[in-house]
Amino acid sequence: MAETKPTANVKPATSVQAKKSSNLISLLAPVICVIAGYIIWRFLLGNASGFSKPDLSGGFWPNHDGPKNALNKMYLGGIIVPILIGSFLTMITFVIERFLTISKATGTGNNANFIRKIQYQLANKNVDGAIAECDKQKGSVGNVMKAGLHRYKEMIANTELSTDQKVLAIQKEVEEATALELPMLEKNLVFLSTIASVATLLGLLGTVLGMIRSFSALGEGEGGGDAASKLSVGISEALYNTALGIGTSAFAIIFYNIFTTKIDGITYGIDESGFTLTQSFASLYK
Fold first, then answer.
1. What pTM does this model have?
2. How confident is the model at residue 238 (pLDDT cuts 50, 70, 90)?
């Protein structure tokens, strides 16, 4: 009777569970921020007390005139202003959200020092000590390393697989753990990159619309010095859109680059973690 060899399961289910996250903030934040932008524009910047010739009829867009300060002049920038304010508030919301998430993912200590501690523990064949270091470090690098170490420990006790198969099993565990961590780091960065691109265009659109209104008013007037003065004021008010758009875009670009740099550092630490585990196992458990 032919002898049948047991089939070895190289890769059981990963020990890392997918992180559940809600897209509620992604869906609601832009809408809420635009609504908040309109409220700020309509009731704060457009408060009737800030104008010498207020439009007391109210409504969605009161036709105030004679602004008393710079904030009231911003109101006269037009209906694009609340959208720009909403874009700025959206940018601030996702900056705070990404800062909290990436700070948590960075862990409690320096990743380079953490990797050296793991290498030391593994060199002394103290896998439990290495897992304890992961519990102290936390963060994405610590989570990926911990998942790999659990598989590392299983492979030490496995007598059915070759060394190459064991190394592949550890490597695959690290890759799956990495695939669960990275999306959480990059989530919602698209909002910052989009705002960085669109805010300037919205500002220019608001400026163009404002200048169209100013020149239309000039064409309907009788000309003269008073008309030129009104045109200058109208252009000044329209340029508030450009200032808001450029300012929002600049902040979005700065924070986007800061966050992507931090994510690159975490990704490098994760890659180094996988290399450390596979090389350590291949050299110690031939």
1. 0.84
2. confident
Q: Where are the domains of the chain?
A: 29-47+70-284
Q: Are 263 and 102 in contact (CB under 8 A)?
A: yes
Which backbone phi and psi does 53 adopt, to 5 degrees?
-130, 75
Instruction: Measure the CA–CA gap between 280 and 173, rounded to whole angstroms.
Output: 15
Give the integer Cα–Cα distance in Å for 79 and 83. 7
Q: What are phi and psi for residue 51, nearest 5 degrees? A: -130, 140
Measured distance CA(271)–CA(265) in Å, rounded: 10
Outline where the chain has alpha helix (H). 24-39, 70-75, 80-106, 111-123, 127-137, 139-157, 163-186, 189-220, 225-284
The tokens for 85 are 């304010």
pLDDT for 132 equals 94
Put residue 54 in one of left, alpha, beta given phi > 0 → left and psi -120 to 50 → alpha. beta
